[in-house]
C-alpha cells in the first residue's frame, strides 16, 4: 500500500500551461504523486510470508505488517537456499544401496536415476538415510548425483556375475540397508535377481512408479498393477524416477573388505569380453553415432570417417531419401530414436523431426556452414566450417594418433 | 545333449490372446542349432497353450498339469531334477503374466545350477560337456562365457530371430501331459501387495539436454580443418566417448 498510483487526469492538469487557443502541456514537468494509493500485491504477499519455514508458507490472517522498503531487506528464502555447500549425512539413520553399472567408467542416465530413486527413499519420511553408491572404482560425479557414501567394486571387470552377486550380498549382509536399488537393464537386472533369490526375499522388478510410500509395477501385460510399500529389493526401469538434482552430496568412500564370497563359480570355466563392432550395431544400441546430412556430398569420405572413429553411421532423412545411405541409418522421428551418448552431426540442419531422434544424446557435436542452424544451437561443440574439408582432416588426425599410439 | 526349453503360457501384448513368447521361440532357435534332443517343458493348467512352440522347431512338449495360479516352481524343479537335462533354456522375462523373470533364477537356486543371463548365441564348447555362450551387454559389447554343463541359460531379445511358424508341424507335434506328484498349492507369492487395474504413467521426458560444457569453448567459426579436427577429438576424449 505504499506505491502511489499514477492519476493521469491530475497529472495532465498539473502539466497544462494555459494556451490561449488550444490546450498546451509541458510534458517535461515533474508532477507530484496523486493522492490515490495503489495496491501492491507483491508487497502484500511478502507481508504474508512466514520466514521461519524452510519452504514457502503464507499466513493470510496476518494483519499487514509494515512492508520493508526494498526487496533486499526482507530475509530472502532464495539467498538462504542458494548457499553452495556439500550435503553431509554424518550419522545415517539407515542406508539405501544403489547398485550402479557405470559401463565404461561413466554413469549412464539410468544409473543416475537409480541414485535418484535411492535418494528419494533415503529422504523419505523423517529422512536421515544415506545413499551408498556401489560402483566400479574411479567414477567421479557420484556425489553430484546424490551418493553420500561410495563402496568401490574394485577388480570388477574380470569378475563373473555369481562372484559379483556374492560380493554385493556380503555388503548387504554386513551393512543391512533398508533398500537396495538396481537398474532393470543389463547386469543390474541379473544381479538383483541373483541376490534376492539367494536371500529368499521378495523383489519388485521393473517399477513404473516409485514414491516414498508406494511402489507400483505392471503385470499381466499392462492390464493390472501391483502396489504396496517399497520393498527391500527394487529394480527400476528407465525414465521412471527422476535423477537427483540438488546440492551435491558427500560421496565419502566407505572401506570394508567384502571379498568373503568371492569364490568364483567352478562351473564357469572362462570369461572373455568381446568388444562390440560399432559399425555392425543397430543405431538404437550404439553409444556413438556419426551422422551425415544434406551438407555432406562426399559419402565415401563420411563412411571412412565413421569407421575410423569407430562410430555407427547414421544419416538424416534427406540422405536416406536420396539413396545414399540405407533407410535403417535414418535418425529421427520416423527413423531411429537414439540412446547414444554422443552424436556427431555433419552438415545437418537440425529439423525438429531430426532433433527428436537425438533428444537423449548427452553430447552433440555439429559441423555446419550455417552459424544459425538449429543443430549448432543444440550442440555442445559447434564447428562452423565446410564438412567436406573437416572430414578428411579429422580422419587424417585419427589415423595419425592411432599410428602414434601403436 | 539333452536340452529343455521352459515354455510359459504367454499372452500377446496387444491382443492378450495366448501366444508363444518371442524369447522362447528364439530359445528354441538357439537350441536347434546345437546338436541334441530338444524338448519343451510347460507347467500350467492347459497344455494346448504352448502348441505354437511345436510350430517353430519343437516336436515334443512335456506338460505338467498344475492348477491355474499355482506357482510352477515346485513342479518344474521336481521335473528338472528327475529329467536332469544338460541344458535348460528360458526367456529372460515372461510375457503377459508375472513378467518378473524370476523363474529361471529360482530354478537355478533350487537345482544349484549355474545361470548365464542374456544369451544371444550358444555353441558347443572346446571340451565335451561344455558350451560357449555369448552374453549381450550394453552398447553392443558381448561376453563369451565357457560354462560346464548342466546349466541354465536365459535368452536375450537380440538373439537370432525365431524360425517361421509352420502350422502342419504345430498340428503334428505331441504335447505329453505328465502327472505331478507333490502338490503344494502355494498361492500368493507377494503377501502384502495389492492389485488394481493398470494405469499408464508417463515416462520422464527426454527433452533436449542443455549443451554440456562451458559456453565459451562451444562455438568455433571458420577454424582451419586441422584445428576443427583437433577440437572434435579433444571433445570426444574429454567426455570419455572415444580415445585415440
Ligand atoms: C513427417 C516428417 C517426418 C520426418 N522425419 C524425419 C526423420 O526421422 N529424420 C530426419 O532426419 N528428417 C526427418 N524429416 C525431414 C526433416 O524435416 C528435414 O527435412 C531433414 O531432417 C533435413 O535434413 P538435413 O538437415 O540433412 O538437410 P537440410 O535441411 O538440407 O540441411 C543441410 C544442412 O547442411 C548445411 N551444409 C550445407 N553445405 C554444407 C557443407 N559443405 N558443410 C557443412 N554443412 C553444410 C546447411 O547449412 C544445412 O544446415 C521428417 C519430415 C517430416 C515432414
Ligand atoms: N509355467 C511355466 N512353465 C515353464 N516355464 C516357465 C513357466 N513360467 C515361466 N517360465 C520360464 O521362465 C521365463 C521367465 O518367466 P517369468 O519369471 O514369469 O518372467 C519364461 O520365459 C519361461 O521360459
Describe the 3D structure:
The complex is a heterodimer of chains A (406) and B (244). Chain A has helices spanning 8-15, 41-48, 77-81, 109-122, 161-175, 186-199, 299-308, 317-321, 352-357, 374-378, 387-405; strands spanning 94-99, 129-135, 149-152, 179-183, 203-210, 215-219, 224-228, 233-236, 252-253, 268-274, 288-292, 312-315, 342-346, 363-368, 381-384. By secondary structure, chain A is α/β, with parallel strands linked by helices. Chain A has 3 domains: 10-39, no CATH class; 95-253, 3-Layer(aba) Sandwich (Rossmann fold); 282-405, Rossmann fold, CATH 3.40.50.1220. Residues 65-81 of chain A have low confidence and may be disordered. Chain B has 2 domains: 2-187, HUPs (Rossmann fold); 205-244, no CATH class. Chain B is built from 5 helices and 11 strands. A 9-stranded mixed β-sheet of chain B has the order 7-6-5-8-4-1-2-3-9. Chain B is globular, with a radius of gyration of 24 Å. At the A-B interface, helix 6, strand 5, strand 6, strand 7 and strand 10 of A face helix 3, strand 5, strand 7, strand 10 and strand 11 of B. Bound molecules: flavin-adenine dinucleotide and adenosine monophosphate. Residues 6-8, 21, 23-24, 41-44, 72, 76, 90-91, 93-94, 97-104 of chain B line the site of adenosine monophosphate.
List keywords for this structure.
heterodimer, A: 406 residues, alpha/beta, Rossmann fold, 3 domains, nine-stranded mixed β-sheet, five-stranded parallel β-sheet, 11 helices, 15 strands, 19% strand, flat, B: 244 residues, 5 helices, 11 strands, binds flavin-adenine dinucleotide, binds adenosine monophosphate
